[in-house]
Design goal:
Helix content is about 85%, strand content about 0%. With about 220 residues, the protein is mainly α. The longest helix is centred in the N-terminal third of the chain and has 37 residues.
């Protein structure tokens, strides 16, 4: 074998090795992206459940305030529950929209940015939908009582006192825990890890692994 033939054979081997590396990277990337997409499925179904819950709250609120417009306690309680249901449904819908906007054919950095935006909004979603129950339980109980036939209007002043006595300290305690975590960690990452959602965190870890692999 002369020098030209040896050089051609070596170049052909290099091309095959390059193609093999590219194929391996492609297969690894596709596998990681599919795993990242699959990791968000629990979040997707969770938001559908939140929408169903929000619709139920809307029905409860409307069923409370529409027939009792002459009773301020029931009117206000029903409207609050109604508004909460609308907000909860809208937040879940926006979260689903952010999930659907993630383009897994895009560069990893772009996917990570979309996922970070989804995570931030999901934390906001959870805080609005969840922390509001420190005070929301009172109008919910009153609205539910009105719908099922139990008039709790006479007990509303006492229940309001209990609600404020429980809800305000609860909100203050939550804010204190948040601030303490920020002070101890130097950022709000610890607190956000609690609220950020297991599905999103799992997907982020998969993308981080893929990003490290592509840099190596």
């Amino acid at each position: 074998m002369d020098t030209d033939e040896l050089k051609a054979a070596w170049q052909a081997l290099e091309r095959r090795m390059t193609l093999q590396d590219q194929l391996s990277l492609h297969l690894f990337r596709e596998g990681r992206l599919e795993k990242a997409r699959h990791s968000l499925r629990p979040l997707f179904w969770g938001q559908l459940i939140q929408i169903a819950f929000g619709v139920a709250m809307i029905v409860l609120g409307v069923s409370c305030w529409t027939p009792h417009r002459d009773l301020p306690v029931l009117l206000v309680s029903g409207i609050i529950v109604h508004a909460y249901g609308v907000a909860t449904t809208a937040l879940a819908g926006i979260t689903l929209g952010l999930i659907s906007q993630i383009d897994y054919s895009a560069p990893v950095l772009t996917i990570q940015r979309h996922l970070a935006r989804l995570r931030r909004f999901y934390i906001f979603n959870g805080m609005i939908a969840g922390l509001s129950w420190w005070l929301l339980w009172l109008p919910f109980v009153i609205a539910l009582g009105a719908v099922v036939g139990g008039n709790l209007t006479p007990a509303a002043p006492g229940m309001l006192a209990v609600c404020l006595a429980i809800g305000i300290p609860g909100l203050i305690a939550t804010a204190w825990i948040h601030r303490r975590r920020r002070r101890n960690a130097g950022s709000d990452e610890c607190f956000q890890d609690v609220l950020g959602g297991t599905s999103i965190q799992r997907s982020q870890r998969v993308l981080d692994e893929l990003s490290r692999f592509e840099r190596e």
